[in-house]
């Protein structure tokens, strides 16, 4: 058995959830890809993948093995680049994930600049409002907003954002501007469900406010559009409304009561720190993202 081929095949199948897709990526036949993984499972004495006619998924043993397998492959690829003298120049594939709105507004311009500066680099940018499992989904690094739980992933602070209350000037003219957090109970509120944990908004004063929104949506841009139309007051992340605050179409409310800022962090496996692709992305992100620009 060609162990390296078997490991690469297993990692590709696990990432793509497809033997056919992995075979195309590795330029193998589907039969050869299936045989390579079967031989690896036979040698390990444990099933790594669950196969049905419609899907492929990891077994618990496969999920545990994938982390170690991908780590080993990454280290070998990094070592090969160093031997070839390619360390200084990003090349090949870099996979990055970020939240949808933040990614479109701030990560995509960083990626575009990298691609223009490094013609041998290609980037897979996955925008998703969920926690992406890096090793399992074949992703090199993730931009995450908020306090992070302890993990084996390396963390590099990029910037910070704030949770801000906003309303349109027309709404405030009609209903008045709240002077305290308690005054929010007398106002129409707009919320989006992944930003209202337990139906509460927390403030610097420490006491949470129970939110009973007139409009609850699962999309932040819809919430912002509703506020722009004069429907009520919303709580959003500062970067989501930077331009609206600057042009006066939205007004920031109760800034003294805002809770502490949220960190924006790049997380990646510690063994990827030497990757020229990742290093170039991190350096570009640290240059581009400044707290003053994000509120």
Automatic annotation (TrEMBL):
Short name of one Pfam family: HTH_1
Biological process terms in GO annotation: DNA-templated transcription
InterPro entries: LysR-type_TF_proteobact-type, LysR_HTH_N, LysR_subst-bd, WH-like_DNA-bd_sf, WH_DNA-bd_sf
Domain HTH lysR-type intervals: 1-59
Keyword tags: DNA-binding, Transcription, Transcription regulation
Highest taxon of source: Bacteria
Keyword Transmembrane helix tagged: no
PANTHER family to which the protein is assigned, alphabetical: HTH-TYPE TRANSCRIPTIONAL ACTIVATOR TTDR-RELATED, HTH-TYPE TRANSCRIPTIONAL REGULATOR
UniProt name for this protein: LysR family transcriptional regulator
């Amino acid at each position: 058995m060609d162990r390296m081929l078997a490991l690469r095949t297993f990692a590709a199948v696990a990432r793509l959830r497809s033997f056919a897709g992995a075979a195309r990526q590795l330029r193998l036949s589907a039969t050869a890809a299936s045989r390579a993984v079967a031989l690896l499972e036979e040698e390990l004495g444990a099933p790594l993948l669950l196969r049905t006619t419609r899907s492929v998924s990891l077994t618990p043993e496969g999920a545990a093995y994938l982390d170690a397998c991908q780590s080993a492959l990454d280290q070998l690829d990094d070592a090969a680049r160093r031997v070839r003298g390619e360390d200084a120049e990003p090349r090949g594939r870099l996979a990055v994930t970020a939240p949808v709105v933040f990614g479109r507004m701030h990560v995509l311009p960083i990626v575009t600049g990298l691609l223009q500066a490094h013609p041998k680099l290609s980037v897979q940018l996955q925008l998703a409002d969920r926690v992406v499992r890096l090793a399992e989904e074949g992703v090199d690094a993730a931009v995450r907003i908020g306090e992070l739980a302890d993990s084996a992933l390396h963390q590099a602070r990029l910037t910070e954002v704030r949770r801000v209350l906003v309303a349109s000037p027309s709404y405030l003219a009609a209903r008045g501007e709240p002077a305290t957090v308690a005054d929010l109970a007398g106002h129409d509120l707009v919320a989006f469900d992944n930003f209202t944990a337990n139906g509460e908004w927390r403030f610097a004063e420490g006491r949470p406010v129970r939110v009973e929104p007139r409009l609850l949506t699962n999309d932040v841009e819809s919430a912002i559009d509703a506020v722009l139309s004069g429907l009520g007051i919303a709580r959003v992340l500062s970067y989501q409304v930077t331009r609206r605050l600057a042009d006066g179409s939205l007004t920031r409310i109760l800034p003294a009561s805002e809770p502490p800022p949220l960190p924006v962090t790049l997380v990646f496996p510690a063994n990827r720190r030497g990757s020229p692709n990742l290093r170039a992305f991190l350096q570009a992100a640290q240059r581009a993202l400044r707290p003053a620009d994000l509120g």
